[in-house]
Specification:
The chain is an alpha+beta fold. The chain contains 5 helices and 4 strands. A 4-stranded antiparallel sheet has the order 1-2-4-3, with helices on one face.
Length: 159
């Protein structure tokens, strides 16, 4: 499904809002961010972020962008936080994409039971941010979720 949301990272991110609107109908307790995408050039765009969670998840945005670009579009990204934030948003970034050299293309991976378990924990943790505050990184669930995320969980889920 994710691969059908655009031919490049810019189009994909533009369509993420549509996916989030659909998911909100089924997961009413969830809180999804809003993305603003402004084309800047053939390989660059301005990405703005807003969320009812504030900037609690700011630390993972660059990693998610990088892994989505790598797994879905065989691209690498350079992400720069801009000093001036677009009106109505909390964070504005300049994203520049370049083709990933063929020797760095991700290899297809199977998704095993452990990946599915971690994906479930990841979503559980993300859903709790904003309702109960930022989860404590010392709790068992939060610790394993954030660790799994930093080890490329998104890449495993997209493979």
């Amino acid at each position: 499904m994710l691969r059908s949301m655009g031919d490049n990272l810019q189009d994909f991110l533009h369509n993420v809002n549509h996916m989030h609107q659909y998911l909100e109908r089924h997961f009413r307790e969830s809180s999804f961010p809003v993305w603003g995408v402004e084309p800047e050039g053939p390989n660059s765009f301005i990405l703005s972020y807003s969320s009812s969670r504030g900037l609690a998840l700011k630390g993972i945005i660059k990693g998610l962008l990088s892994e989505a670009a790598r797994q879905l579009f065989r691209q690498k990204v350079d992400v720069e936080e801009l000093d001036e934030t677009r009106a109505g948003f909390l964070l504005t970034l300049r994203v520049v994409t370049t083709a990933l050299p063929e020797n760095e293309w991700p290899t297809p991976r199977s998704v095993d039971a452990e990946h599915k378990k971690n994906a479930s924990l990841w979503h559980q943790c993300l859903a709790s941010v904003g309702r109960t505050g930022l989860p404590s990184l010392t709790s068992g669930v939060a610790s394993s979720v954030w660790t799994a995320a930093s080890e490329g969980l998104l890449g495993a889920c997209l493979a």
